[in-house]
Fold this protein.
Amino acid sequence: MLTPSETLCQLHQQAAEVRVYAHIGARMYVRSGAEMIRMGGVYMDEKNLASAYVLYTKYAVLALEKLPKHPGYSKLSPEDLKVLKKRAKTSLDVAEELKKRIRTQLDKEYERYEAERAENDRLSDRLAEDLQLTEKESGKKLTDEEREDYERRLAKIKEAERLRALSEANTIVPPDSSKSRSSRSIEPSPDDNRNYSRDVYNLIDSGANRGSQQLRPLLVPGILREKFAALAERNTERNVETCGVLCGKMSNNQFTVTVVVLPKQSGTSDSCLTSHEEELFEVQEKYDVITLGWIHTHPTQSAFLSSVDLHTQFSYQSMIPESVAIVYSPKYQQYQSFSITQHGLKVLSECREAGFHYHAKEPPLQQVSPHVTMDPSIGITTVDLRL
Ligand SMILES: [Zn+2]
Ligand SMILES: [Zn+2]
């Protein structure tokens, strides 16, 4: 079991890992920053102190250290800069407070762990003494049966100790994530994409309580298809794409899409550009939701992610790995949610092309999202800002 200081150090290292890409707009990071704060609040409510601590620290690192080096930083509005600075200060204060609480919790657990270990040592020592005494007194060696019995009892004590150490280690940081820490010093090899992606991507997602790269479930209201199709209909008839932003909540390690926002936009037959992003931010603040992906139509094509779509999806997925791209093709009656594969994340993080361009198809860059469920029982709020 790690000592409290070691565990804290591990969390801090995790928090310091913030990577900002020049080809993702600075404004996107401002928006994601706001979402990190909202997510942090959720973790606080869920008493997930470690994840909250990592997120608030990440925000401070982003706002004070990483984002100022982004080429688009100087072009951010004075309001954006003010918000960043103000929130960075609050985040640092909150993180400091959380650190104290985590430390107290860790100290308590470690004390208990040490006490139990001492007790176990005492028990096995006594068992050994008893054994020697019996041998001496009776003046003969123990029978095989007696010796076996002794060894069984000793093994039991050891096993109890091992299990306890494991479960204790789980309460703040699961053993899996400590594994990923120790492997971090090794340069990621090409087939080590899983670790690589976990460390490099996922700005918002802290993952402190989620040792593995496993995606958390994302629920999408079944009614979204119908509602979005209706909102897109006029464009679809004119062979013009429509796009919307999927927003929602996280609770108990599960995401739910609750709001779809259609920002002001201009579409063509194979593209859709949004504008007036601040209006989207306002809606998100109002409903207290985070971005969980996007949805768009392919009026005449089938449902898949084009090269441009892949780059758009990369910026969503690099913030929260569970973010999805839903594509609706009225012509082929296809409706599918897509995610970028681990391999795809690596390719796209290195690709600097813009507009429609070629990516090698194998291994695949996209896949049908494995973690998404269309739930017919939940409703959705639509906010149409196009008018
Ligand atoms: Zn598309
Ligand atoms: Zn590309």
Remarks:
- Residues 25 and 72 are 7 Å apart (CA to CA).
- The longest helix spans residues 78-138.
